[in-house]
Amino acid sequence: MLSFLYGLIGIILLTAYCLIGAFAAPQIAYWTMTPNAQKLLEEYGISRKFNLKGKISFAILTAVICALYLITIISAGKQGVNSGMNFWQLSIRFVIFFWMISIFDAVVLDWWMFTKTRIFGILLKQKTGKTPSVWSVEPQWDGKEIHKLIIEVFVSAALAWIFLKVMK
Predict the structure, then answer these.
(1) Residue 133 burial class via C-beta count within 10 angstroms: exposed 0-12, middle 13-18, buried 19 and up
(2) If DSSP states are collapsed to H, E and C, what string results for 30-96?
(3) Which pLDDT tens digit goes with each residue over 55-91?
């Protein structure tokens, strides 16, 4: 049950990073959006270049979210070792954590939020003051979702091994 709680914390952190980041420094969107979405950002005058305020916002947000992710991973690992989890149980805890975040990212953030809601248009309007002609964009599938899930299994096993070696 705690594994799902840690996964939920990860989802909350990812959502906060994406939403706050998009509105604080919309240049981040150029790294994560489809070519059509990037073209629309340019058409509405949102530059690819970070201004000083955008750089500072992005740096602070990234540092805070990364620190919170690390705290969550360390807490999950320490709690798992202290409660007597073995290698496989701890590996599964980390797989649940990472997969909850990855699947949420792919389904909710990359697909639903940008294709079924008006969040993209709201971003354009908030940043430019102009009413956009397009309120949503195509999904952001890059074809690497399955590869990422497989890599996360190995990362989870490595984390479990590290925590078991360090904590015991």
Answers:
(1) exposed
(2) HHHCCHHHHHHHHHCCCCCCCCHHHHHHHHHHHHHHHHHHHHHHHHHHHHHHHCCCCHHHHHHHHHH
(3) 888 888 889 999 999 999 999 999 999 999 999 999 9
* Count of alpha carbons within 13 angstroms of residue 145, beta-carbon side: 16
Q: 143, 145, 124: which is closest to 134 by C-alpha?
A: 124
d(CA 78, CA 94): 12
Name which of 13, 1, 4 is nearest 100 in CA terms.
4
Distance of alpha carbon 155 from alpha carbon 18, whole angstroms: 23
3-state SS class at 137: coil
pLDDT of residue 49: 74
Mean residue pLDDT across the chain: 84
- What gap in Å lies between CA 136 and CA 19, rounded to an integer? 15
Cβ atoms of 101 and 124 closer than 8 Å? no
Q: What is the pLDDT of residue 120?
A: 78
The answer to whether residue 32 scores a pLDDT higher than 70 is no
